[in-house]
Specification:
Rossmann fold, 2 domains, alpha/beta
C-alpha cells in the first residue's frame, strides 16, 4: 500500500508530552522517543500498528503537507482522559542522486525538532496489530531491522507486563548496520534488559560485518548460529513469527530460512503453511 493511498481525512491534534534522545550524545545517529497526547479520549491502538504524522510540506516540491508512518513504540498509556502514544524517530538526511546536494528528511527533522507542549496532526491508527496468541505456551519468533524494533518493544512489554505468565519461548532477533542503531539495546537505553530475568526471553543482535558500511545485515550469521532451535520452533505448530522492518528484509530472510530448512522449495512450503495458519505476520515499510 502506497503512502498516498492511506485515508488521511480524519485527523487529530496531538501534543508533545516529551521528546528524549535515546542514542548517545556522542553518536552521529540521533534517534528520539516522542510521547504524544492525543486530543481524543477514545483513540485506540495496539502494538504493531502505526500512526500517520502530517508535517508541513516542502514548497520547492509543490507540497503543502508531508505524510509519514511511524510504528507505535510502547504499550498504551493515558494522560488524564487522553491516550498517550510513543513513537521513535531517527533524524535522517539524503543525497540527491542528480545534484549531489544533501537534504534533510522532512518528517524526521520536523519531529525531532519539536519540543514539549508543541502540537501536530496525526491520523490512524493503521495496520494489522501483532496479535498475542491465546495460548500462553505459544512460541514467539520476533525479527526486526532498523526502526522495526519499535513495535517489538511494545509487544514484548505487553507480553510480560499485561498478559503475564508467558510460558512459551520468546526469541527476538534484531539487525542493524551499527551497534548504535540498536536503539533500545544500547547501554544508554536498553529496555529489553527488563525481561532478561524471564526464563522464556532471549534477544540477539545481527550486526553488519563492517559497521558504517552499506553491507547487508548479518542475518545469516545470527540466525544460522541458532538454526537448531529455530528449526524446532518452526516445526512446532504453536510457534508464531512476526517480522518488522524495511521490505528488503523479506528476501534476506527467505534466503537464510531456505538454508536452515534445507532448500528454497521446503522453505516456501513451510512459510505458506504458516501464513495460511495465521502464524506468520509481516509489518514492512
Amino acid at each position: 500500500m502506497r503512502l498516498e493511498d492511506y485515508d488521511k481525512r480524519q485527523r487529530f491534534d496531538a501534543t508533545v508530552v516529551s521528546s528524549n534522545r535515546i542514542t548517545p550524545e556522542e553518536s552521529d545517529i540521533e534517534v528520539r522517543e516522542l510521547l504524544l497526547e492525543v486530543a481524543r479520549p477514545n483513540f485506540g491502538y495496539e502494538p504493531g500498528q502505526s500512526i500517520g504524522v502530517l508535517t508541513p510540506g516542502d514548497a520547492a516540491f509543490g507540497t503543502d503537507e508531508h505524510f509519514r508512518l511511524y510504528s507505535v513504540a510502547d504499550t498504551s498509556s493515558r494522560a488524564a482522559d487522553n491516550p498517550v502514544i510513543a513513537i521513535t524517530v531517527r533524524r535522517v538526511s539524503y543525497i540527491d542522486d542528480y545534484s549531489g546536494e544533501r537534504y534533510d528528511g522532512i518528517a524526521s527533522n520536523y519531529l525531532c525538532d519539536l519540543r514539549d507542549g508543541e502540537t501536530l496532526s496525526i491520523t490512524g491508527p493503521y495496520g494489522i496489530a501483532f496479535e498475542v496468541p491465546e495460548d500462553r505456551d505459544a512460541n514467539l519468533l520476533l525479527i526486526g531491522s532498523g526502526t522495526g524494533i519499535a513495535p517489538f518493544r511494545a509487544y514484548v512489554k505487553h507480553i510480560y507486563q499485561n498478559v503475564g505468565d508467558w510460558r512459551g519461548k520468546v526469541r527476538l532477533f534484531y539487525g542493524a548496520q551499527t551497534g548504535l542503531e540498536h536503539l533500545y539495546m544500547n547501554e544508554h537505553r536498553d529496555d529489553f534488559t527488563l525481561y532478561y530475568d524471564e526464563d522464556t526471553f532471549e534477544a540477539f543482535k545481527a550486526l553488519s560485518p563492517r559497521p558504517n558500511w552499506a553491507d547487508p545485515i548479518a542475518w545469516d550469521y545470527c540466525l544460522m548460529e541458532r538454526s537448531e532451535e529455530i528449526v524446532e520452533m518452526l516445526d512446532d505448530p504453536k510457534t508464531y513469527v512476526f517480522v518488522a522492518g524495511l521490505e528488503p528484509i523479506r528476501d534476506e530472510l527467505d534466503k537464510v530460512f531456505a538454508e536452515i530448512v534445507g532448500s528454497a522449495e521446503k522453505w516456501q512450503r513451510r512459510r505458506a503453511e504458516m501464513v495460511a495458519g495465521g502464524r506468520w505476520t509481516e509489518l514492512l515499510y
